[in-house]
Amino acid sequence: MSDKNHQDDDMTDFAMNETSRSSVTSGTGTVLPGQERYVASLDETPLHEVDSMDESAPASNMWTDAWRTLRRNPLFIVAGVLIVFIVFVALFPGVFTHQNPNYCQLEHSLEKGGPGHPFGYDTQGCDVFTRTVYGTRTSLSVGLLTTLLVVIVGTLIGGLAGFFGGWIDAVLSRFTDIFMAIPMLLGAIVVLQMFRTSSSIWKIVLVLTLFGWTQTARIARSSVLETKNLEFNTASTALGSTPLRNLVRHILPNSVASIIVVGTTSLGSYIVSEATLSFLGIGLPSTTVSWGGDISNAQAILRTDPSVLFYPSAALAITVLAFIMMGDAVKDALDPKSRTA
Amino acid sequence: MGKYLLRRILQMIPVVLGTTLLVYALVFALPGDPVKAMFGDKPINQAVAAQIRAEYNLDKPFIIQYLLFLKNALTLNFGNTFAGQPVIDEIARAFPVTIKLGLMAFVFEALFGVVFGIISGLKKGKWYDAVILIVSLLLISVPTFVTGFLMQYFIGVKWHLLPVTAGNDPGFLDLLMPAMVLGSVSMAYIIRLSRSEISSNISEDYVRTARAKGMTNRSVIVRHVLRNSMIPVITYLGQDLGALMGGAMISETIFNIHGIGFLTYQSILKGESNMVVSIVTLLTLIFVVCNLVVDMLYAVLDPRIRYA
Question: What are the residue boundaries of the ABC transmembrane type-1 domain, all occurrences included (chain A) (predicted)?
């Protein structure tokens, strides 16, 4: 008890010494004329107004910051409007056309556009406008589902590799290298040969995922590696967090930005890949309305009637463009390094 | 450096083995019996069928088949196709064409990609920057085969500037348009990559320091900004060189070029498993070696990276 008191006394002594010493130094400094330090009075410069902080306002974080940057970016607005429109067309194609995309009459073959059929007809006498509208759903589903699966698989494998390091990292990284070394198109063709009879879009989604997850895994790995060694993790560990809690609460939320960026940007490339596979004749069967299939059918009549090829290609290009622009905007907003530029 | 190289080469071994095993498993899991297909409509002679199966090692368990394939591949003996042709002969016939096409595409994308990327990165906001950016976005969002058709239609058929298709033994002019189509998407990516690298590097502190030292604008750009900006671009180019060989499939199909891509596509459709596995093995090797070369180049370009 007495010991503690003594200690306390010491500390007060020390504190007193400190204050007295500092007051001495400031007191003894002789100020020559013309050397007075000018201190603006608070009335003249209302600093408190500038520095004051609204403490009741919700705390800002990376996501609200990013959202604020995004809202002001014209690229984001254009891409956002386009994507909302594309999603709407994919969900409710019936709003835009009352026809059945598979209802084709040969007597209309290659007829020019007229009222109700603005884009004309293809070789089989199908309405190009209706097929373009209905193709939206296929392409968009393939793009979105593939991106979703790629992000899940890639984050899981890359995240685990980066988080655990050591031999787990070595094994998972070599595993990623193996899949990365197979060209996507080549691998996809080999696998799709096995499922020629299936007509569901899932076969395309799964095949694209099988050869597409490697990029996300690499980015997730390096991002987790980078975040793992940052100070807030050490601090959190010092406060008694388990590694798992660190992973879920700190590492993943901080790594997710780069994964979102690569996901948004590659969404478009999956849509292009689906179209390419349909062009090679091993993608979706002709019963499924898809832009890729329509473009590849229109190829034969390119020299006589290029408009049949034009419309589905344009729809595809606009969709991919919208997602690339969205990816760019999100990247600008989430990556503080590129924000300054 | 020597130690690092050795470690990298040792790391390549499991990757090459894994990739070939994966492709082998995928290809031989393909439905259909190639031996049955050889007989066509004729009744199957069991004795002959068994002999053929033995010849192609089809009677052995999968893993033995794979090991035998590897053993033979080491001596560049890839066996015969089911049609009886030695696989290596077919590859040797198709490969030079694809190498020519791939290198032309590579030079095209590297040259135009970097030049346009630099122009647009240094002159951000000018009208030609906007034009370059829009064209590169369009090239990315339009599928290669559509770009290919359009170029074939306009440049080849309508304006007669370049040959429409390339036949056997194509020359430089025959391959020019296919190479442009093959390299177009990568060129667009390189433009975007170098543009964003340059514009972010130009506001770095070391650039300001260099200017403060009194360096001329020209040498600041060339010796500091460009040198630092080109590192990611070279990574991309290195990975792409390997990918171009595999990606040649579309452009070879459109322009009727009998190269590796065309051969692979035909072999997959015909179920020539031996051919597919052999080609993919070669492509994987090329891809892995390209990546290694890129990593070695890093040390030359960036003095901060030193491999112990």
Answer: 136-327
> Domain total for chain A?
1
> Is residue A19 in some structural domain?
no
Q: What is the distance between the alpha carbons of residues A316 and A322, in angstroms, rounded to a whole number?
A: 10
- Using alpha carbons, select from A234, A261, A270, A229 the residue that is nearest to residue A331: A261
- A197/B contact by beta carbon, under 8 A: no
Residues of chain B under the 50 pLDDT cut: 308
For the segment A229-251, what is each residue's pLDDT rounded down to a tens digit?
888 888 888 998 888 888 888 88
**Is B143–A175 a contact, with Cβ atoms under 8 angstroms apart?**
no
> Cβ contact (<8 Å) for A324 and B15?
no
pLDDT score for B306: 62
Q: CATH number, domain at A220? A: 1.10.3720.10
Which residues does chain A have within 8 Å of residue B280's beta carbon, measured at their own beta carbons?
A: 182, 186
For residue A329, give every residue at least 6 positions away whose Cβ sits within 8 Å of its Cβ, in sequence order, or none.
A70, A73, A75, A76, A79
For residues A163 and A228, the answer to whether their CB atoms sit within 8 Å is: yes
Contacts for B237 with CB less than 8 Å, ≥ 6 apart: B106, B109, B110, B190, B294
- pLDDT band at residue A11 under the 50/70/90 scheme: very low
User: CB–CB of A302 and B22 under 8 A?
Assistant: no
Give the residue from B12, B137, B141, B277 with the most A CB atoms within 10 Å of its CB, the best one to mutate: B141
Query: What is the reported pLDDT for B37?
Result: 64
The pLDDT-based confidence of A46 (bands split at 50, 70, 90) is: low
Nearest chain A residue to B192 by CA: give it: A328
Q: Is the Cβ pair A295, B143 closer than 8 Å?
A: yes
* A151, A170 contact by CB (below 8 A): no
Residue among B9, B24, B145 with most chain A CBs within 10 A, to mutate: B145
Of B11, B138, B145, the CB nearest to A276: B145
In a domain, A6, yes or no: no
Residue A108 falls inside a structural domain = no
Which structural domain, as residue segments, surrounds residue A157? 81-95+116-340
Say how far apart CA B94 and CA B98 lie, in whole Å: 7
3-state helix, strand and coil shares in percent for chain A, rounded to the nearest 5: 75, 0, 25
Q: What is the mean pLDDT of chain A?
A: 79
In a domain, A75, yes or no: no
Entry pTM = 0.80
Band of residue A51 on the pLDDT scale cut at 50, 70, 90: low
| Contact across the interface for B253 and A280, Cβ inside 8 Å | yes
> Are B141 and A321 in contact (CB < 8 Å)?
yes
State residue A7's pLDDT score. Answer: 46
Looking at the structure, give the CATH architecture of the domain made up of residues B89-301.
Orthogonal Bundle (1.10)
Q: A189-238, pLDDT tens digit by residue?
A: 888 877 766 767 888 899 999 999 998 998 899 888 888 888 888 888 89
d(CA B188, nearest CA chain A) in Å: 13
pLDDT at residue A80 is higher than 90: yes
